[in-house]
Amino acid sequence: QVQLVESGGGLVQPGGSLRLSCAASGMLLSLNGMSWYRQPPGKDRELVAAITRFGVTTYADSVKGRFSISGDNAKNTMYLQMNSLKAEDTDLYYCRSILGVRVHWGPGTQVTVSS
């Protein structure tokens, strides 16, 4: 059974940094496309960053140059390094895996950027 568990969220001041982790079990990170999404209140989930199993990365325009997605196959864990955080980055962040038609989501971790 595939399970994704996010961690690393919390409260941070504007300009600060956080690193989110997504620990995967029941699947191999190296075989899946992995991504981070966030969901503003009352809105649909939006893509933040993605990484293919070949290591190709994609970022939303709003986070380019500030966020970095990576994976550690040995730990079966994906990361999202978030720097220069802004108030508008406040959201619930989810990790997602996709392999063919199989899509799995984690429960999410809250990131709040506020002074």
User: Biggest sheet: strands, sense, closure?
Assistant: 7 strands, mixed
SS content category:
mainly beta
Helix content: under 10%
Rg is 13 Å
- Record field, number of beta strands: 11
Instruction: List SSEs in N-to-C order.
Output: EEEEEEEEEEE
Question: What kind of oligomer do you see?
Answer: single chain
3D shape: globular
Percent in strands: over 45%
Q: What ranges have pLDDT less than 50 throughout 5 or more consecutive residues? A: none
Mean pLDDT across all amino acids: 95
Distance between the termini: 40 Å
Number of helical elements: 0
Please give a structural write-up.
- The protein has 115 residues and is mainly beta.
- It has no helices and eleven strands.
- The strands form two sheets. Strands 2, 4, 5, 6, 9, 10 and 11 form a seven-stranded mixed beta sheet that branches. It has a four-stranded antiparallel beta sheet with strand order 1-3-8-7, with no helix packed on it.
- The chain starts with a strand and ends with a strand.
- The model has no long low-confidence stretch (mean pLDDT 95).
